[in-house]
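Lab meeting, action items carried over

1. Structure of the two-component assembly. Owner: GW. Status: complete.
Input record:
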Amino acid sequence: MAYKYIEGITSDVMFEAEGKDLDSMLEQASLALFDVVCQRKKVNPTKKIKIKVEGSDEKDIVYMWLSALLSESDANELFFSKFEVKVNKKGKKFVAKGVAHGEDYSSEKSGTVVKGVTYYNFKVEKTKKGFKCRVVVDI
Amino acid sequence: MQSRGGYLMRDKPSVDVKSKMKAAGTSRQIIPKSIRKGMNVDAVVYGNSKILKQMENDALYQLTNVACLPGIVAPVIAAPDIHWGYGLPMGAVGAFDDKDGVISCGCTGFDINCGIHMIRTNLTRKQVEPKIKQLIDTLFQNIPCGVGAKGKLRLTLDQLDDVLRTGANWAVENGYAVKADVEHMEEEGCMTGADPAKVSDMAKKRALPQLGTLGAGNHFLEVQSVDEIFDAKTAKAFGITKKDQVIIMLHCGSRGFGHQVASDYLRVHEKAAKKYGIELPDPQLVCAPVNSKEGQDYYKAMKCAVNYAFANRTIMTAWIRESFEQVFDKKWKSMEMDTIYDVCHNICKLEEHEVNGKKKKLYVHRKGATRALPAGHPLVPKSYRKVGQPVLIAGSMGTASYVLVGTEKGKESFFSTCHGAGRVMSRHKALKLFRGEQVKADLMKKQNIYVRATHGKVIAEEAPGVYKNVDEVIESVHSAGISKKVARLVPLGVAKG
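Predicted assembly:
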């Protein structure tokens, strides 16, 4: 599995995601996040939102991307279930551009409110296989 | 490893705080500042022996982080319901000097002005119990619940700015509540000085569709009955007059708007901490000097979220009253459905406290903690001033909730006390141990409590077994004297997001 939830946080949720590169790791982290927000596997990817964020380094771009997904989901009243993202380095900045696919909010497919992405135990690291991150989200 | 801000990020606390605490009075322990380099002040932890056994070292260590911040005023406070939280643990208070201190969005947290609104009735358990399923289903129908629920109000941006500036007063002006509701709320339902210009467009976009929605997670609406009255005089002043009287408890906050304000200002305060050379013991405790632009901008934006939450809870009181009218075929006024009080859990406020015998203004951050003012305090509503401020404490969906009252002894904790039972088990573990439908069936079979939720997962995550024993939490603050027991309430029915 490219993402898994980890025991150890009393009130919040911690997960790890990995991928062969930063892009695929971000997609896996996005899936992990929206498995908490909604019943993702039931959500049809019929609507899409374009998202672009900037960050100062690899960690920052992960934080910014996941935070933007939470904001866009809530502001547009959409549950997301599919993600495409590409990270490019422009000068000193990292830029993530992508699309989140999903459908309108409905109580039947809801999960738990995620209030924010936190810096607690937040890690992004290069591995032999590619990239790996650990994220704690505030519930 | 190094975090983004260049601060040392630890997986595990470097000090076993729990073993270094020293008893200092009934249900009261001190974490001396000598146990860790950099602590400016001691921390005080409230809890009896049973509660202390359950406390996480990680959460206690977080108190020592806060004690390292500049301008912190002694002591950092932990209530018995403390558990690990973002930056400042849940169930904690950090007060800062109004000149040399900091304002920290990390200390206030993501769910700004999450709080409790309580409404009394003149109905009895005997009248309500036979109709509890119909009542909870009606409330669930009339109040949008859950992360996927769509709000019934669709505000314009101008209307939203009015809500952010005026809080619960907006609900009164638009016919959702009456003046007496607002008079019985912390801050009278509005923090003055809120500035919508300090709030991002994204925050406003999230705010527009969510006013008048309950949310999900640990937020709920519960119909309860009075199980025991400990202090009849005070209870009577609050409108709680007899055993089996039916009471309504609403627990929710500022929704996605508050989460966005917090997320936005975490970035601002992260940069501010670097700019002003504030050494952070934990990157989650990002902050800005109290009188800096970054500090005051956050304070004005946070007030907007506080006011949004006040309006949110007050609007829902209208739909609670309507639901009772539908089920019991009586007007809400004839059921005497008056607001008892409304308290804030996650908030920063400029308050006056006594420090070393002198009155002093402090920025008091309460996270998962409740203000508890004593009799005679000018900020207690006139109708309660002779007895003190009501303190509303939520249990879990299968255990008791409490009404407490503030005390004069509470000045040692910046007039603060606990806010709930406090979790002891992760959501992940809860989902492994419990099945929502089984928890729901057991609550009905064993305790006659009817639970309605958007889905079983939220019931499993919030099962009574994931929380500390609320009775021990209350015994701790009662025996320590920072607030006193007034009444114990038990759930009849629960609506959850």
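2. GW to write a short summary for the group page. Key points so far: The two ends of chain A are 23 Å apart (CA to CA). The interface with chain B takes residues 5-13, 37-39, 56-57, 59-60, 63, 67, 70-71, 74-75, 77, 79, 105-113, 115-123, 138-139 of chain A (CB under 8 Å).
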